Amino acid sequence: YAVADGYISRIMVSASGYGKALYVNHPNGYVSVYAHLSRFKKDVEDYIFKYQHDNEEFEINLYPLPNQFKIKKSEIIAKSGNSGRSFGAHLHFEIRETQSEKPINPLLLNFNIEDTIAPKIFSIYMYNFEGENGSEMIIDKKNINGNIIKVFGKIGFGIEAFDFINGRNSATGLYNIDLFVDDSLIFSYTLNKISFFENRYLNIFIDYSERKGTGKKISKCFIEPNNNLSIYEKNKNNGIYDFSDLKTHSVKILAKDVSGNNSSINFNVESDSSFKIKDKKNYHNLKKIYFSKKNFYFTDKIKIIFHLNTLYSDIYLNYYSSKNKFSKYSDIHNIHDSYIALHNKITIAIKPDNLEHGLRKKALIVKLKENNKLEAFDSRWKDGFIETNTSYFGKYFVSIDTIAPKIKSINFNKKNKQNKIIKFKIRDNLSGIETYKGYIDKKWVLFEYDKKTNTIYCNLDKENLKKGKHILKLIVKDKKGNESIFKSNFIY
What global pTM score does this model have? Predict the structure, then answer.
């Protein structure tokens, strides 16, 4: 249901991302967004169906005129679903500022949602910044109240906490966190709104390595050098406190929700020089990479380019090569630590070994994931190297893709009378699906694509197909030009 009067300003259909989505502009300066839909209201559905056929494309991104699809409050504008990158049927709902396009916290707009439950704090993390990259220890919440924690040097804190709303089992994020040392506010953030350009900073807002390793979501109560989130309000020394004075200090972390419910945790920290952490890592043979400038690491086999602001802080690059049992075309290039987050993409270029000239068009860079599965990257040739951009540290090497995609019927039956909706699985072994086309009697028909399930499906009834015999043809290509064709007669 539309939350207010307005008009449909944007219609998007994608095999991934938001899937099927509607954007409704409202006269009060806001846009409401409804995503992962299963279908739109009829006049919108007819409009995009015609556009898809006229352009022979499933994916669309349209901006109708303001008078084309006017909407009244509480009008049914779509049906919720599971389209796009969605792993369970639900409505993804947003309120954005029309002018800035920034999503705002919708709970600030007085929706009638009862919330009398205070946030729950599960644990406190402590980070020591005396070493080259900082060491860390974990303090369990149940051991804090009434206890004295001994530390020395520059310390930051993190909090594992969530908010809950009446009638819901699932947790939500925290609206506000304040950190006090000796009753002095040294760190604060409030989530009123956030730009899409800031989304990637989530990797430094949380403890990325803890999230990747254990699944825990730890909100950091300090700000690292290249963290440019706009949500921070007050901070002293970026929320990092120097406990080097051999004194005892009181620490308080206060967590709040939009409704004013709050929870806090209090503990004491004693400065003790015997707890000074010595970083035992040897950085002398490692190249230092600076976040604030462009950096290069070149050998005769690999080139790594760190663009400006790729990193959240300076690092000492840990790189080595190792034998490759997955491909004969290069060693495995182990680039730093996959538990360290990148903000912007780095450029990787690898010189292939033993690659026949006829396979150059089939070559690409792949990443070896933790489960020994391969992830392919769009790659290009440059100065005898194969080059790509990636947002992740990890293990990379050169491989080839010479195998065409597979097309497998789910319910298509050429011998019997055909179902109204026909479905196929389309899969590619490495580079990924680039294009797919469906034709009936040499005429293009709409096959919708659900990328997460590798499924395409066509509603024959909507195609105004006449009863009787027909010929179906599917053409599927991957990103390296390998092609598969499925062709069959059928009766409708």
Answer: 0.91
Q: 391: Cβ–Cβ under 8 A, 6 or more apart, which residues?
A: 342, 344, 345
Which strands form 433-440's sheet, in the order they lie side by side?
A: 443-444, 433-440, 469-478, 483-491
- The pLDDT value recorded for residue 325 is 93
Alpha-carbon gap, residue 36 to 247, rounded angstroms: 55
Residue 279: phi, psi to the nearest 5? -80, 115
The answer for 77, left when phi > 0, alpha when psi is -120 to 50, beta otherwise, is: alpha
3-state secondary structure of 43: helix
Name the stretches of the chain with pLDDT < 50. none
Reported in sequence order, the residue ranges of 323-417 that DSSP labels E, i.e. its strands, are 332-335, 341-350, 363-368, 374-377, 380-382, 385-392, 394-400, 406-409
**What pLDDT is recorded for position 415?**
67
CA–CA distance, 12 with 35 (Å, rounded to integer): 9
Task: Supply φ then ψ for residue 142, to 5 degrees.
Answer: -65, -15
Cβ neighbors of 287 (< 8 A, separation 6 or more) are 297, 316, 317
Whole-number pLDDT of residue 136? 65
Q: What is the dihedral of CA 213, 216, 221, 225, to 10 degrees?
A: 30
Encode burial over 265-294: b for 16+ CB neighbours within 10 A, e otherwise.
Answer: bebebebeeeeebeeeeeeeeeeebebeee
Distances (CA, A) of 434 to 44, 370, 426, 428, 483: 27, 26, 11, 10, 10
Q: What ranges in 112-220 are assigned the alpha helix state H? A: 202-205, 208-214
What pLDDT does 357 receive? 92
